[in-house]
Amino acid sequence: MAFDIQMIEKVYASMAARVDKARELVGRPLTLTEKILYNHLWDGSPSTVFKRGTDYVDFAPDRVACQDATAQMALLQFMHAGKKTVAVPTTVHCDHLIQAKVGAKTDLAVATSQSKEVFDFLSSVSNKYGIGFWKPGAGIIHQVVLENYAFPGGMMIGTDSHTVNAGGLGMLAIGVGGADAVDVMSGMAWELKFPKLIGVKLTGKLNGWTAPKDVILRVADILTVKGGTGAIVEYFGEGAINMSCTGKGTICNMGAEIGATTSTFGYDDSMRRYLASTGRQDVVAAADKVASYLTGDEEVYSNPETYFDQVIEINLSELEPYINGPFTPDRGTPVSKMKEEAAKNGWPLKVEWGLIGSCTNSSYEDMARAASIVEQAVAHGITPKAEFGINPGSEQVRYTIERDGIIATFEKMGTKVFTNACGPCIGQWDREGADKGEKNTIVHSFNRNFSKRADGNPNTHAFVTSPEMVAALAISGDLSFNPITDTLLNDKGEAVKFNPPAGDELPSKGFAVEDAGFQAPAEDGSGVQILVSETSDRLQLLAPFDAWDGKNYTGVKLLIKAFGKCTTDHISMAGPWLRFRGHLDNISNNMLIGAVNAFNQEANKVKNQLTGEYGAVPAVARAYKAAGVATMVVGDQNYGEGSSREHAAMEPRFLGVKAVLVKSFARIHETNLKKQGMLALTFANEADYDKIQENDTFDFIDLTSFAPGKPLTIEIMHADGSKESILANHTYNDSQIGWFKAGSALNLIAAAGNA
Fold first, then answer.
1. What is the rounded CA–CA span in Å between residue 584 and residue 178?
2. Closest CA to 186 of 625, 697, 747, 737
3. What is the separation of C-alpha 551 from the centre of its chain, rounded to a whole number of angstroms?
4. Which of 452, 690, 721, 752 is a good FRET partner for 114, with 20 to 30 A between their CA atoms?
């Protein structure tokens, strides 16, 4: 039986009437995305038509999910909200704080010991406030959500950018910062700009070596890392229907890499099979009653150009495997072109590691298909040329693939089986030799491949591909190996060509697990005590940020002008810094240390205008803060791309940064900055980025008349005494300006709770 079945049935009970009303108001057939959005309006039944990409709308999500690294800050904020329990079903999942090194048993024991203080804190807060708690080793948040909580037609938010994975079960699942989660957990509306719609029509059928991963790798190649910004991607067509549910999840998962708000698929038989296989036949029964409302209207899919803002068509029968990278997930190369591209760009051909797992590709089907390639290599006497590791997506998946002999197959090739956790995907990988900084290539089935992300080595060329391709490339040890056409020599000197991968979509014997790792909250948590030591270096109770004083900002110094790509990994690195995610002061010591200074092309080296000396970004920021001097960060395109981590907004806020002025923002990061009471601004004229000089000081001329739709005027004072004015655009509405004036959105929640 499903968790929260009564909540799911309630969502379905209102769906027909609300969607019919929305269709009447809009005056045309509706996409699935629109049906779900209009059924989740905060005010209930639709009464107006919203303009895509323009109108801010209040929604009522059905549930919230948090992973352990972001849950710490989210729950520390929730503790200030003055609530006795969460208002919607909420879960916390311990998957980020487990480092991959030796193997599952040892690594989990080490993590449980090292992060005991944090895990105990998350467990006790969950127990007190009615939150479901998934223990370390239970699995990766998004796989666990897909197995237990996702349902067709639902809406959820999660404090991780890959929350979008649940779109594989027909949800609108959206990654947010912790402050957004606190709003919903506190019983408040959640605000989102009504999204634009991108339709992806899938024709044909996957075959041979092509996998669902190749669909999103191709879409990323087409749209780039910012092509989906402000939009929801809806997949449809015969190719979508012919795909497994977990395959759909993989595609939705990596929608985060194109900047999409989320991605989704219509309800179909693959979802019915998956729900039934994971013990949720009751959800199937409920969904089947409103099945026509859980997919786009027939007219929409017949004439998609009329109903979507952009349409992409991909013929799966013609699609070949893709290998994307290095250093960005949108640089796509078909396997047939990799040899040529690698030679042209000087990419190392020798593959050192192959890694399968992460929230993107750690399902039963993923493991089974990859294992089929390993089985062939073992049977033919082929010795793998690269090291190999896997991270099962959940304890249920791990237990089942062990029962079915899949783990044993991997182990025949010397594979390291890591914990059911994120591991190398988020930099939680103690890779031997990474500190040498040698140029090398790894291949993985993860979602991101930014510089330094997996192992901290800026010279590691990481390529993203499907699990079965990871297996083939790791066995061959050659990035240019094409398993469709090429052969490998076995121990007898014979040429062997792999057969295409094969594997069951779902376990024929059903899923099984002894201890899934779930802890239900106390019926009455009022007596649960939450203790945070004042001397802890892992956890720190939060103090409210100061409210705006009502005056124009003046004398603001440039902290850093970031050059080129500046992701949340550049702003607030993960890896070894994850241990400080619950301690704002300590985690702030990694603020912008990965960003490249436009004036010297070096990372973590900026000028302190008060002394004329250069120092690390956090140190210089602290010096300005101590002197009572406000600062500003300047950035390039798609600033804040990547993770949902709100630390990338809270750290600058904590260290005295008043504004972030860039060419363009990634959606989640822009919202996070707003939530923390900062100014998130864009150049009205992108060429003004070039006017910013290293010793500049800024005055905000008209901040006292801050209003929706009205650009702000910033006067730049250069070191030579000259001045010039520029305009900065913003997307704040009245309520978001209220966050700014109050010092943060949380300050408003706390004030309302104390009223």
1. 13
2. 747
3. 36
4. 452
- Please say if 718 is a catalytic residue: no
Burial of residue 345, with CB atoms counted within 10 A of its CB: 0-12 exposed, 13-18 middle, 19 or more buried: exposed
Mean of all residue pLDDT scores within the chain: 96
Locate 536 and state its tokens. 């802890």
Out of 68, 107, 160, 688, pick the active-site residue.
160
Q: What element of type H or E holds 218?
A: helix 212-223
pLDDT at 482: 98
Choosing from 40, 218, 461, 645, the catalytic residue is 645
Joined together, the tokens standing for residue 297 give 């209207």
Q: What is the pLDDT of residues 173-219, one digit of tens each?
A: 999 988 899 999 999 999 999 999 999 999 999 999 999 999 999 99
CB 249 within 8 A of CB 165: yes
Please pick, among 218, 448, 669, 730, the residue that the annotation labels catalytic.
448
> How far apart are the C-alpha atoms of 245 and 375, rounded to whole Å?
25
Choose the catalytic residue: 126, 270, 643, 664.
643
Q: Residue 497: count other Cβ atoms within 10 Å of its Cβ.
A: 12
* Catalytic option among 18, 40, 80, 96: 96
C-alpha to C-alpha distance for 143 and 139, rounded to whole angstroms: 7
Residue among 95, 107, 404, 478 flagged as catalytic:
95
Based on the residue annotation, tell me whether 162 is a catalytic residue of this protein: no
**DSSP for residue 718:** -
Mean pLDDT, consecutive 10-residue stretches, the chain (755 aa), reads 93 98 98 98 97 96 96 92 93 96 96 95 96 98 98 97 97 94 95 97 97 98 94 98 97 96 98 98 98 98 98 98 96 98 97 95 96 97 96 97 97 95 92 95 95 93 98 98 97 96 97 97 93 91 94 98 95 89 96 97 97 98 98 97 88 98 94 96 98 98 97 98 98 96 89 68
| Residue 643 known to be catalytic | yes
Determine the straight-line distance between the first and last CA of the chain, rounded to whole angstroms. 40
For residue 621, give the 3-state DSSP assignment.
Answer: helix
Q: Which residue has the tokens 């030799």?
A: 433
What is the spatial distance between Cα 411 and Cα 389, in angstroms, rounded to a whole number? 10
Q: How far apart are CA 713 and CA 432, in angstroms?
A: 51
Cα distance between residue 174 and residue 157, in whole Å: 5
For 387, the token pair is 């090291």
Active site residue 96: yes
